[in-house]
Amino acid sequence: MASNRTKDKKKKESPEQLKQEKEEQINVKELVKDERTHKIAGIALFIVSLVLFIAFTSYLFTWKEDQDKVLRHGAGVLFDEEVAVSNLLGRFGAWVSHLFFYKGFGVSSYLICSFFFIIGTNFLFGKKVFSMARNLKYVLVGLLVLPVFFSFFMKGFGFPWGGAFGNYSASWLNGFVGTAGTGLILSLAAVSYLIWRFNPVFKLPARKPKEIIVDPLPEEIAERVAIDVNEKFAIEEQAKNQLKKESSFTPVPLTEEKENPLHSFIINEKEEDVAPLTPLPFAEQPQTESSVEMTIPYADKPKKAAKIDEEEIGPALEIKNVTDDEDEDDDDETPVKKVVENLPPYDPFLDLKDYKFPSLNLLENHGSEKIVQDPHELESYKNQIISTLRNYDIEIQKIFATVGPTVTLYEIVPAAGVRISRIKNLEDDIALSLAALGIRIIAPIPGKGTIGIEVPNVKKTVVSMKTLLSSEKFQHNNFGLPIAIGKKIDNENFIVDLTTMPHLLMAGATGQGKSVGLNAILVSLLYKKHPSQLKFVLIDPKKVELSLYRHIENHFLAKLPGEEESIITDTKKVINTLNALCIEMDNRYDLLKEAGCRNLREYNEKFVARKLNPQKGHQYLPFIVLVIDEFADLIMTAGKEVEMPIARLAQLARAVGIHLIIATQRPSVNIITGTIKANFPARIAFKVSSKVDSRTILDTGGAEQLIGKGDMLISYNGELTRLQCAFVDTPEVDDIVSFISKQRGYPQPFLLPEYVDEKELEGKDFDLSDRDALFEDAARLIVQNQVGSTSLLQRRMKLGYNRAGRLMDQLEAAGIVGPSQGSKARDVLIKTESELNQHLEMMG
Ligand SMILES: Nc1ncnc2c1ncn2[C@@H]1O[C@H](COP(=O)(O)OP(=O)(O)OP(=O)(O)O)[C@@H](O)[C@H]1O
To answer: Is 665 in the pocket of ligand 1 (CB under 6 A)?
Structure first.
């Protein structure tokens, strides 16, 4: 019944009437929402603010003349044409400023016109240029405090400084706490207001440092400071965001720029890290002393040392001259020893003292580095993620977004009670529902209770090598071999020390950015290292990728003696080179052992301080970086012959400054074997074709979800980090290489020790009558030192590896030393020289 009645009632109403009402309602709503209305309102408010400002300012000068008239007529002054006032805005101006100044708040009334200005600006520009709530607070508190302050302190000046409100409050306060109390309270209130409003910086004048600190921070501390600062920033940002957010998952409207936590979270300290684009100052490198400076210390030294040619100030020459007959261990303070001690430190740069490091101008900016954040994209993915998870009954507490160069990380805090393993299990379904290529789910993000969903950006940003190399972290670090790899999702530059990695394995399907990645690493090193500090051994079975670098062979490359090409492409030669590197490693170990040093850095420091005698084979040892561009080809053709020396180098070479970078297109288990993997803790995966490949390289899936073009995952220090690899184009590499190659280099590439295949030597029976002319000398040396090492023969007798090796074989055949024991020295079977003499006599 009742429903029938309503129906009837509705019927009775004429349809046009209904329609009209409805339309009107909608129109008003739309009108209010219309952005044109906002603009008009904005301009109107601007004008109000301007009118008030003019009236107030004019009042400051005309108040005396106009005050009586306004007081006498009250609001009537507005319409009384006979009253003539002096305010610039006429009777209205005089009245309105009288109202605000005299009857209201005095000079603090300007706060009101500032407030109109703020609302007007926000309306006009259609967004929150200024925060309304915050400014409203400032105005209200200002109107409460300042008039009282002015009334109290400016009493007796005639002008209504604090207006009626100020006068009344000040006199009340005066009665309440007395003059002194009022003065103190008001001063405190006014100062507090100013601090709250403007937060001025109070700084004591900086004291001048007493002495200039020259030493850079120790490596670990410098690193830690950098990390702490970054962490602090991130934590502060996050805390701010948390505060701003509502308790539900709604992460604050994404369309508001100023106060949007997603945005402020996103805009990381990106720019902070960029140092001015000046040619790199190589702070950590040993200083190149000018030839003039070098000559001064010699001026009052004994004649012999003073004569040394500036060009050749190297330990080999100097010590040779002065230590001819001296035993280094002699404790006596001989004049000669004094000279050595007083020599300036050895400077490895002096070999090529005019060498100029490549300037950053050789690199290009690839597009704008500004990360493009599309609020609509962020909002829509956020909603999609929330609704997708809700389909699986997963409720979310909060969601944050961090926009990186290629992907955006949505970090989710699941509601209480949601098990992370459930989300992990639903990984594929969620990825499918989100239906974007390359979604990676990290459940949970290590070290946090949150879940990460990485979604590729529609518009990706290229990370230029130039940006990374000009960053503070790259320019001012204390790394042995700094390499700039790329940018993390939070836009932090990923710059690491290859010496701590200590080797690097790279894999990725063809065309996904491997070669660019290799170039980025090589270029980083070329920008930071002097030719005396670094040598590359480049192996490139594909014969294309690394050939660019052949022009710098006399500066930065190493090769086998007698070889024509410095870039090794032939498998047989690769095997020889790898074995030669093993010998170099063993030789270096011997040197380090003799010098009592644990690693290359200590050894070189000792050598630079001239604590090691070059006569005993000591020399400044450059880092050696072995780069293999296509490892799969090598393993396929040479198998164990390649794998064994690589495994040996990977296990042992770190301490002696030999580091390996191995790249492959095919990360299958027969190529990246267990032995290789175990010795390469740092690994990079560009996009690979399957989850199995990803597992082979990273021990986990994810690399198959990458989006190519330098998008990569790096497993380093037990952490998996997604990076956008720095981009350096071939023409840029060309320019750098030709810049270096045009400069004076060494006469030839750095020579690796000679390696002779043992198989070739085998079978050649040793005939005692055919023994080497140096056989006896070698036997004495070995017996005197009681060390059966080929490198000892090489160094002390200045022999090539071949001859020293042959001599050692002869000594073995003669029963003086035992059989080879790999990298360990052979046993010496004869203990004293007299025993040796007898033995040699018997041999005839
Ligand atoms: N970091 C990067 N930023 C932007 N684009 C990149 C990046 N790395 C690679 N690319 C793009 O991808 C292309 C292929 O890269 P690259 O030559 O390094 O692949 P690859 O994996 O070495 O391939 P292949 O194994 O066939 O040599 C480049 O020419 C470039 O256009």
So the answer is: yes
Q: Tokens for 222?
A: 């410098």
Q: What angle do CA 497, 500, 503 make, to 5 degrees?
A: 95
Give the integer Cα–Cα distance in Å for 95 and 59: 10
Atom of ligand 1 nearest to the CA of 518: 18
Binding site membership of 644 for ligand 1 (Cβ less than 6 Å): no
Residue 481 · residue 502 · CB < 8 Å: no
Give average pLDDT by consecutive 10-residue segment, the chain, 844 residues. 43 42 56 80 91 91 85 81 85 90 90 88 75 83 90 82 90 89 89 81 54 34 34 40 36 34 34 37 34 30 34 31 36 54 77 88 79 78 84 83 88 82 77 72 78 85 90 89 92 91 92 93 94 93 86 92 86 89 91 90 90 84 93 84 89 91 88 86 92 90 88 90 93 93 90 74 58 86 88 82 85 86 82 86 76
Give the contacts of 442 (CB within 8 A, at least 6 positions apart). 451, 452, 453, 454
In this structure, are strands 493-497 and 482-488 parallel, antiparallel, or unpaired?
A: antiparallel
Rounded to the nearest 10 degrees, how much is the dihedral formed by the CA atoms of 772, 778, 779, 782?
-150
Task: State if pTM tops 0.80.
Answer: no
C-alpha span between 820 and 827 (Å, rounded): 8
| Residue 462 Cβ < 6 Å to ligand 1 | yes
Domains and CATH numbers, the chain: 30-198 (no CATH), 243-266+371-456 (3.30.980.40), 291-343 (no CATH), 477-750 (3.40.50.300), 758-843 (1.10.10.10)
Assess contact for 475 and 280: CB atoms under 8 A.
Answer: yes
Number of other residues whose CB lies within 10 A of the CB of residue 269: 14
Ligand 1 close to Cβ of residue 519 (< 6 A): no
Distance of CA 196 to the CA centre of its chain: 36
- Complex prediction ipTM: 0.97
- Known binding residue 512? Answer is yes
Contact 62, 94 (CB under 8 A): yes
3-class DSSP state of 177: helix
